[in-house]
Every structure is written in C-alpha cells, then in structure tokens.
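USER:
Make up one protein:

ASSISTANT:
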Amino acid sequence: MNKLFELEKKYNAGSIAKQDYISKMHELHENLWDYSSFIKGKNISSITVTAGQIILETKEGIKMACDPDDERIVPMEIVNFGDYERKELEMMRNFIGLKSVVLDIGSNIGWYSLNYSRMAKKGRVFAYEPAPKIFKYLKENLELNGTKNIASFNFGLSDVNKTLTFYYDPKLSGSTSLRRLHEDRKKIKIKCKVKRLDDIKLGTKRIDFIKCDIEGAEIFAIKGGLKTIDKHKPVLFLEMLRKWARKFGYHPNDIIDLLSEYGYICCYVNGNKLKKIEKVTENTIPTNYYFLHKNKHYSLIKKYVNR
C-alpha cells in the first residue's frame, strides 16, 4: 500500500497519535524538497503533481505526463540523466525547417513529435504509435501542449497491412517490438495494426524528414515506404542496433545497402557535424544514423558531413 495512505489510515483509525502522524508524514514529504534540489541543472522547469497525474515540463516548455509503471519513460529519463538525446535533436534542427513535413515512426509518448512541432511551426508532423497504452499517453501529451500541427495515428508502419502481435513491457514501453527483445523481462502480448507507408494517403505534397525508431523493425518500415521515400527523398533518421536487427534476421548494413540503391549515404553525429559511414561493424559505437540523399541534399552534405 502507498505509505501516505497507510499512515493516513492508521491516523484515522486512532492507532497513531496526531504528532506522530505529522512527523512521519513530514519524513515522506521531504522527498519533495529532494526533487527540488535534484532537478537543478537538468532540462526541467518543473514537476507538477496534480490529482491523478504527474507532469514534467522542460525548460523549452514541453510538457509530458508520467506513467507510474514505466521505469524509462522519457520524462523519467530526463529526471535521471538530465536530458534526452540532446545531440540528436540539435542536429535535427539543421534539417527541419519552419514549413517542413515530418513523419515520426514509433513516436512513443511524443518526445520527438513535440520537438518537431516547434521546429516546423508552419509545417506538419505525422506521429505513428501502434501500442494502445503508449498511444494514450501520446494523445495526452499532445493535449497538454496544445499542439495544432501534429496528427497522431494508432498504428505502426511496416511492409504489410495487417494486425500483428507485439511484445509490450509496462515497465519499459520503449522496447515494445514485434520480437521479444529482452528475454529476461516479462512481456505482454498485444495486437496492433501496421500499415505500409506507400499505401497511406497523407494529403501532403512534400515529406522532408522521417524519423524511424521501432526496435529492430526499421528495415520493414523502409521497405513498405520505398516509393514514398524515392519520390520525396526526405532526410532519414533511423535507429539501427545490431542486436535488435539480429532478432529480425538482418543486419544494419542491409538498410545501408538498400538505401544506397536510392541515392542515400549513411552518417552519424560526430560533434557538431556528421561523419559518413560505409558499413556498421562489431566495433561501431553509434546506434542512431542520418541518411542524406546525394543529389537532393548535396548542399547539406557539403555543409555538415565530414568525410
């Protein structure tokens, strides 16, 4: 039982004296001041406790609701480590303009989508999240921030149009995947819809940037959207982990080779620039990669890519 409720119950039942109740409750309340000190220097403006909800607000004014079950939900990552994937976000600002159209494939609770919304104030963001509970928090965060340029969809992207079985961990929602990624953790099987990007009518004449982080299934989302990618030639930002790709029977180099056929080069963040990479090896450290089109993004490559 919640220690606060437990003490209150004892006091109301007369089994603890009023002053003892006050003193013991104060010991628990001290955590509030601990947090006040702990968040100094982090990308946190405030943590608000309301009835049934805890909301973290960053210094940029982005608000996110916390899931009490999730150990690694983005707001908790910011509390624990000070920020979340800051260098990736700073690099993205070079590729997302005021009127950009952005696809966030595997949007989770909306951290990237909310940042994209601000970068592309006169553009549009399409957020795709297949897991129902995660999608609930995504919608909640969009409402908290009053976003007008984000369209959210409760399905994932793949190379098929069907309902598939996903593995969901309430304590680690970011690892939700079509494969059982963490064998040592308890997973819940859930049914989620996936669609091919090439079969979706977005109603937009341009796509400037695609982020895809779907826990090992990135190659399938790419294969299901090759016509769209070839037509619009957006900048791509993909997570590629060897251990997750192995669960699906491929290697990150398969994505590099596939996209190279469509004119793309692969890079990773190196300081305030990008570094071109031909192949991922067992010694490769980065897990997040940018793909730029040799022709369409020639000026960006010249400006930001160190060979």
